[in-house]
Amino acid sequence: MKKFGLSLVAMSSIVFMAACGGNEGNTGGNTDNANAASNNEANAEENNEANANAEANENADNAEAAEDISGSVSIDGSGTVYPLMSRIAEDYMTNVNSEVSVEVSRAGTSAGMQRYVQGETDFSNASREVKDEELEEMEANGIDSMEFPVALDGMTIVIHPENDWATEMTVEEVESIFISGAVNDDDVVMWSDINADWPEEEINTYGPNENHGTYEFFVDELLDEQPLKEGTNLQQEYPTLVELVNDDENGIGFFGFGYYEANTDNLGVVSIDFGEGNITPALDNIDLEGDYAPYTRQVFTNLNLDSARENPAVKDFATHVFDVADELAADAGFAPLPEDELEEYKAEVEAIN
Question: Where is the PBP domain (predicted)?
Fold first, then answer.
């Protein structure tokens, strides 16, 4: 951008001088103008070269500074956030500093937070906001922490790829399938109970278990804390959920958009009618104010500030998170946060001392 700005200034100077020379109406004036234009162009080229050299030197200084940092960074928590954070970690170790080892695990939001509040990890990824009781545990254990949004995720309702009848549902129909007792007291729910035109086959429900923030977001926020249908198959691992729904023609499950997008050949997706027509989740509509807003949430990482103060590798990696989160979000099935918001979070990390 700096080079582009300087080029515009140089060209404006050339045009202005040429116009003034035309009013002179003599050969000497034209020669002077030509010389002036040539000098301006030469000066612009020198400025561009100087800026390029300065930028190269700055990059070299940054690279040299990064090379002086070594050690390890530990991250646990959300299985939903895992694909994004693991990509960021790989990018950091490959392109920024190979002397730092960044280990990313995926115990689940709640399980990961239990490690974090005990001071066992430097970061804890979460697919929901930190809870009051977790904040209390941090305070009791002397953990100084800061919560940062890193991207946007869309809760996605998935079905068997050959299910061609339940590809569109209202929010109320989704709730009827998943809420205990919403249809029948024994929680045996048929597709035909939801829509008379659908098969008279029992619906089997799937989702992540209570270790995951996705479970908490779905039950606490979307189902308004009403209990899940008895017999819902809850799993720790998301790849297992993908496999289970793929193997069950009458299966329906819920999890983050990224795991659906990575498995579109193995899963079908439900378009949700929030009241103004059916919306199929996609990166361009997963937004807190967009068409898919009712099923959109922020996902987070929590940073141990003492770790960032004491371990340069932790702070350096934290700044890198906000350098590349917007670029790598889509690759992991997330919608990026606004660039200015990420810059604000980066500045907050850089100010840690």
Answer: 63-321
